[in-house]
Specification:
The complex is a heterodimer of chains A (about 325) and B (about 375). Chain A is of the alpha/beta class and about 325 residues long. Chain A contains 12 helices and 14 strands. In chain A, helix 8 links the parallel strand 10 and strand 11. With about 375 residues, chain B is α+β, with helices and mostly antiparallel strands.
Chain lengths: ~325, ~375
């Protein structure tokens, strides 16, 4: 079995589902002839032809609107936004139509689209190419927001997203695209949406994270293990709807929680998780819930990125603080 | 790469003009060494060499136009190695040879049975302040929550005896061994569920100058062989017990300073003489306060021979994690019925306390029975 990168796992899932289900179509800027800026759609044009693999003009609102029309007419469009910073012109379509079409038509029409886009910084790119604004989408009722953190979960969760009858914002951690490889069987098996994944079982502290920050969080876990601190690591994976039960079960066991995300702190999904722990898990806490996040600034250019991105030492420090309470 | 094509020098520029060559045919170049300066509609740009190698051919002279993606330079060499795809048009994607081994990823939460303490943070802070172990507090709040009242009640139980009592005279704080005793006994009283059984052994056959302490130790070894459950450690928090292979016998010794319990290690491997020598050694070192801390640790069962002073039966206190202690009272002579006749016999009274959380009544009585049999020389 071949070991593949995260972006290859995306391509593998797209090709698998297009072979299996002829209603699946892909569209976006440079995705057909060029194979996508990150090569996530490479080879699809050759195999499935220009009817199902379409290059679009540079007009994101149009891409989203086109996808809505296709979905309503019975197709399953998977549209790519080249970078997360380019998705904002499509917000009108996403908020006013994609998320609420079923509600507006009292269930007669659904909008089973998948909007894929690279997420996060860390590749020394210009402005608009480093966004991590997942909380904007998680705030909108009617959308699912999904973010894988390994080739295996990229494959399984993308298949699940395409097969879901609901619209899915599928955020791909850019800096993990080619960072590591993993065995990913091309067996068409989807992973469940709406559940967290427990990547490490531990007893002293719960580390909650998603996307590319899983990398630094696992690195922090190794450092903590050397000190004899046993950390449980939860990859949230589906940010909306949030599987708070898995997080609460872990916090009940450990009594301590550190949430790690790349996005700016204010109004981030870390705040939502922290609030839900306060509402339902307060009586198990032995230390305040902490958040290690990016700053409330525009993501800086390449040279300063490393100061913006949370690192494993910040996570270890937060855990040390949590351990001091009880 | 054999042939290097002119890359796009701007955003979608179709062509560029050769401004000046920096290399000629036959030159050897390094990676990133400037090959040529090209003039585009937007700017004058240096084009660096994509590879190291020897120049075989230049496609054009100064002033000529080269179309984007058309040949610019040919390098010597047979094999055409295509330029590696960076996988992005902006920035750089980190690549590594890392192969992810994520172990067993669990969908959702691991299956677990937690018996977590439920208490609000303020209650936890109060417990910490009052030095209360929340796992020992009985909850009275909704859904099994420990309330601040529960913590306070527990704390008052803990401290009843040592604080807020008006002392009528000079107060003396407990120090050292006496303080350790006070704390160990409090701990035992809070945790252990003790049961004491009492019985007598007829040791008429033992001569007046024989060593009763050593006989008791040997009898305890016989008891443990019959019932290993009494030579064990028990952890009430995890509900785990550990039956001990070695018999390390703690021997309670009374001194003016307080109670000492030096430990006779591996008594099952020692003969009476060795045991007596060790006991005598302990008497000396305990009196001189030179007994090493390591000699006071690791006991698996205890013997308290209080009868050397006075007292018949007692309810000896177990020090966790041990689960049993034997107390031995004052030796006495009394009339007994032997084969239908009254005889004067030497009787030694025994009191065995066991922790009923980890030892059953059956185990304890079988232990005591085997012990008495050995003492009475019937084993």
């Amino acid at each position: 079995m071949a070991e593949i990168t995260l972006v290859e796992a995306i391509a593998q899932a797209l090709a698998y589902e297009m072979r299996k289900d002829e209603t699946v179509v892909v569209l976006g800027e440079d995705i057909a002839k060029n194979g996508g800026v990150f090569r996530a759609t490479v080879g699809l044009l050759d195999e499935f032809g220009p009817e199902r693999v379409r290059d679009t003009p540079l007009a994101e609102s149009m891409i989203a609107g086109l996808a809505v029309g296709m979905a309503v007419e019975g197709l399953k469009p998977v549209a790519e936004f080249q970078f997360m910073g380019f998705i904002y012109p499509a917000m009108d379509q996403i908020i006013n139509h994609v998320s609420r079409l079923r509600n507006r038509t009292r269930g007669r029409l659904s909008c089973p689209v998948v909007f894929r886009t690279p997420h996060g910084c860390g590749i020394h790119a210009p402005e608009h190419h480093s966004e991590s604004t997942e909380a904007l989408f998680a705030h909108i009722p009617g959308l699912r927001v999904v973010m894988p953190s390994s080739p295996l979960r990229a494959y399984g969760l993308l298949l699940a997203s395409i097969r879901s009858p609901d619209p899915v914002i599928f955020l791909e951690p850019t800096r993990l695209y080619r960072w590591a490889k993993q065995e990913v069987p091309n067996d068409g098996k989807a992973l469940p949406l709406d559940t967290c994944f427990t990547l490490r079982v531990g007893t002293d502290v719960t580390l909650v994270t998603w996307g590319a920050m899983v990398k630094e969080t696992l690195a922090a876990t190794e450092l903590l293990a050397r000190e004899g601190i046993s950390a449980e690591v939860i990859d949230v994976a589906t940010l909306k709807p949030l599987d708070i039960d898995t997080i609460l079960a872990s916090v009940e066991k450990t009594g301590r929680c550190v949430i790690i995300h790349e996005a700016a702190k204010s109004g981030g999904i870390g705040a939502e998780i922290s609030a839900q722990i306060a509402e339902r898990g307060m009586m198990f806490l032995q230390a305040p819930v902490q958040r290690i996040t990016g700053y409330d600034t525009v993501v800086p250019y390449g040279r300063l990125e490393k100061y913006y991105l949370p690192n494993e030492h910040q996570i270890v420090n937060a855990v040390h603080q949590a351990m001091e309470y009880a | 790469m054999k042939i290097f094509d002119l890359p796009d020098l701007g955003e979608g520029l179709a062509e560029a003009e050769i401004h000046e060559w920096h290399v000629k045919v036959g030159d050897t170049v390094k990676v990133d060494q400037p090959l040529v300066t090209m003039e585009t509609a937007k700017a004058v740009v240096e084009v660096p060499s994509p590879q190291a190698g020897k120049i075989k051919k230049l496609y054009g002279n100064k002033g000529e136009i080269i179309k984007t993606h058309s040949p610019l330079v040919e390098f010597e060499g047979e094999h055409d190695s295509p330029q590696k795809d960076k996988g992005t048009v902006v920035g750089n994607l980190e690549e590594s040879t890392t192969v992810l081994d994520e172990g067993d990823m669990i969908i959702g939460a691991p299956k677990q049975a937690t018996l977590a303490v439920k208490a609000m943070p303020a209650v936890r802070a109060l417990a910490k302040q009052l030095n209360v172990d929340l796992s020992l507090v009985s909850p009275s709040g909704p859904q099994g929550q420990i309330t601040a009242e529960d913590v306070k009640k527990h704390a008052s139980l803990q401290t009843n005896h040592s604080t807020k009592t008006k002392m009528p005279g000079q107060v003396e704080a407990l120090h050292g061994v006496r303080r350790a005793m006070a704390m160990a006994m409090t701990h035992s009283h809070q945790e252990v569920v003790p049961v004491t059984i009492i019985d007598d052994a007829d040791i008429t056959h033992i001569t007046a100058n024989s060593d009763i302490t050593v006989s008791l130790i040997q009898a305890m070894i016989a008891g443990i062989k019959a019932e290993p459950a009494l030579n064990a450690w028990y952890d009430g928090k995890t509900l785990e017990r550990c039956l001990m292979k070695d018999i390390n016998l703690g021997l309670a010794m009374d001194t003016e300073e307080g109670l000492f319990v030096p430990v006779l290690k591996n008594v099952e491997q020692k003969n009476p003489e060795e045991l007596r020598n060790q006991i005598n050694e302990f008497k000396k070192t305990v009196k001189a306060r030179t007994v090493a801390p390591s000699e006071l640790q690791g006991a698996t069962i205890t013997l308290s021979n209080f009868g050397m002073i006075a007292g018949r039966y007692a309810t000896p206190i177990i020090v966790p994690p041990m689960v049993a202690i034997l107390g031995c009272g004052r030796l006495r002579e009394e009339p007994r019925v032997i084969n239908g006749k009254i005889e004067v016999r030497k009787i030694i009274p025994l009191s065995l306390t066991f922790d009923h959380r980890s030892v059953t009544g059956g185990e304890a009585t079988r232990f005591l029975g085997a012990l008495i049999k050995k003492l009475e020389n019937k084993a």
